[in-house]
Design brief:
single chain; 369 residues; alpha+beta; Butyryl-Coa Dehydrogenase, subunit A, domain 1; Butyryl-CoA Dehydrogenase, subunit A, domain 2; Butyryl-CoA Dehydrogenase, subunit A, domain 3; 3 domains; four-stranded mixed sheet; four-stranded antiparallel sheet; 15% strand
Length: 369
């Protein structure tokens, strides 16, 4: 039985790797980290031209009309390159919400612009620290307007529109909000990884149109989060693999006491542990990709498994990459901290690791029952 991607999907992955290696070296990531720009606009235009932003968008809306598996291989390469782009919020979240629940007019307005890189979308969900639940959301929709605040909103400082979870007449619902309105105030917030920006959004009666059926906001959010968990897992797998490669290469070239440091048992064990967790994460991510592409009943458990495993793997590999590099690994001049930053940001991007561990336990119990 073949568990790998198809030859066409592997070719797509290789093409994405070549493109990102040329257009997104570590220097490009550092330029965003150290500069005023919230993301790499030239790279954003490039990935749009390559069709990466519209992988899942139907051809009639300017996309490639492909499936989740193709998007998974793209996500892995974006993770390897630490692409400083609003892909997670715009492609994994906003696009998927529109595909799942948008009416024809909403899709016709936004999907072509998303595919072409002319618009950026995001999902405004959390409002306070801690886990998000229907009862913790206080943002409200009244009389066609939206009132409340969302924090933190990924790429909220640069997004053109947001899908917002808010309390409506029939319970928690989703609303589509154009962020260019004067009734929307954006305030950038600092995070560990500035190459993926975040913001606070305040709504003071901003015009909002319903997205999907009223009262179905929570169920739809969980559906999209499961898909985003698998896609983010591939980003994390890509980052973990690259961090492992960096550690391996340094261990082979760095000399101490007349020999390569990779010949020391402590370094060997560290690299072996990194390889094991990265390989396990890849296996779980592949299982999640299969369930996602098939719409399998196992998707909730598979998505949680991929999320937990990939988060642990990326954080483990990014941390130990610094350790293998020794004292130099902690310095600003080396690129190790770029992966450490991204690993911790992605581990929180869809909810904390402990939250997904609890989800995994609950879903496995439900599956067994």
């Amino acid at each position: 039985m073949n568990f790998d991607f198809s030859p066409e999907q592997i070719q797509l992955r290789n093409e994405a790797r070549r493109f990102l290696a040329a257009r997104c070296p570590p220097a490009a990531v550092r330029a965003v980290l150290e500069g005023p720009a919230p993301y790499d606009q030239a790279l954003w235009a490039g990935v749009a031209e390559m069709g990466f932003l519209g992988v899942r968008i139907p051809e009639e809306h300017g996309g490639l009309g492909l499936g989740f598996l193709e998007l998974c291989v793209i996500a892995e390469e974006l993770g390897r390159a630490l692409a400083p782009l609003p892909v997670s919020s715009s492609v994994y979240m906003a696009t998927e919400f529109l595909l799942a629940a948008g009416d024809p007019a909403q899709q016709a307005r936004w999907l072509p612009r998303l595919a072409g890189g002319e618009a950026i979308g995001t999902f405004a969900f959390a409002e306070t620290a801690g886990r998000v639940a229907p009862e913790t959301i206080t943002t409200a929709a009244r009389g066609g307007g939206l009132w409340g605040a969302k924090l933190p909103v990924p790429d909220g400082d640069v997004a053109d529109f947001a899908v917002v979870a808010a309390q409506g007449d029939e319970g928690l619902s989703l609303f589509l909000v154009d962020l260019a309105q004067s009734e929307v105030t954006r305030t950038p917030v600092a995070t560990l990884d500035p190459t993926r920006s975040h913001a606070r959004l305040d709504f003071a009666g901003a015009a909002a149109e319903p997205l999907g059926r009223p009262g179905q906001g929570w169920a739809l959010t969980q559906q999209v989060f499961d898909a985003a968990a698998v896609l983010t897992a591939f980003e994390q797998v890509g980052g973990a693999d690259k961090a492992l490669e960096m550690a391996r290469d340094y261990a082979l070239e760095r000399m101490a006491f007349g020999r390569q440091i990779g010949s020391f048992q402590a370094i060997k064990h560290m690299l072996a542990d990194m390889y094991v967790v990265a390989t396990l994460a890849r296996s779980n991510a592949y299982y999640g990709a299969w369930a996602l592409a098939r719409g399998a009943a196992e998707l909730p458990a598979a998505a949680a498994t991929a999320r937990v495993s990939a988060s642990q793997a990326f954080q483990h590999c990014a941390k130990n990459n610094i350790q293998v590099h020794g004292g130099m690994g902690f310095t600003w001049a080396f690129d190790c901290h770029l992966y450490y930053r991204r690993s911790n940001l992605l581990a929180l991007s869809l909810g904390s690791l402990s939250e997904w561990e609890d989800k995994l336990i609950d879903r496995l119990r439900a599956q067994a029952a």
